[in-house]
PDZ domain-containing protein
Amino acid sequence: GFLGIEIHEVTEAEADQTGAEVGEGAYVSKVLAGMPAAEAGLRPGDVVLRVGDTPVHEPDDLIQIVQAAPVGEKVVLTVLRDGERRKIAVEVGRRPSPEALLASAEGGRWWRGMRVVPLSDELREQTGLEAGRQGVFVREVRDGSPAAAAEIVPGMVIDQVGPTKIASVREFAAATAEGKGPVFVHVAGAGIKIIKAPEKDAPDPGGSGENKDRPGGKGAGKKPDDKLKGGSRD
């Protein structure tokens, strides 16, 4: 199983901040965006003390329990947050692909064949944008994907989805979640691009998660549309 967190032993400084004991539990240093722990409400700075009735004395305890848990099972974590114990139910997930993990670690998101990440000051400087310009940075585009067909390329900055101005990956995710058909996006310096939805029975080359069909599942064995031939798959 997989939760999508990074953990380590509780240090003296972290014990002072959280009220935990040094060496007690597993300190959550990072929660990966879009993963089971994030969806359940786990936060960086939480200290996991128990899984169900089983105490967590050290990070390896938590790792072993989660790895042994079946995908789809709900586990109840007892965590210490702001000096108080609380219970958080998390549905154990399947470990995602390295690409999905990378996007999550960067705070990024895949959608229709492109991966966008936060627009940092360094990226603004690289792209020649003025300081304070908002949007998301296109880090990667899959060949054969809807984004590639719309002439989206790495290095572009998207600052609007449909009628919605966006300033973060979270806002981008919310705006794109509403669109099921063709979606208009505005690219800084390049104008409007129209990104079509993935073909119904073809795997989405970008790992967007909009099309759940995969080889061996529903839709497997069907001949792909000509325009998707040659494109990389998940």
The CA atoms of residues 156 and 190 lie 8 Å apart.
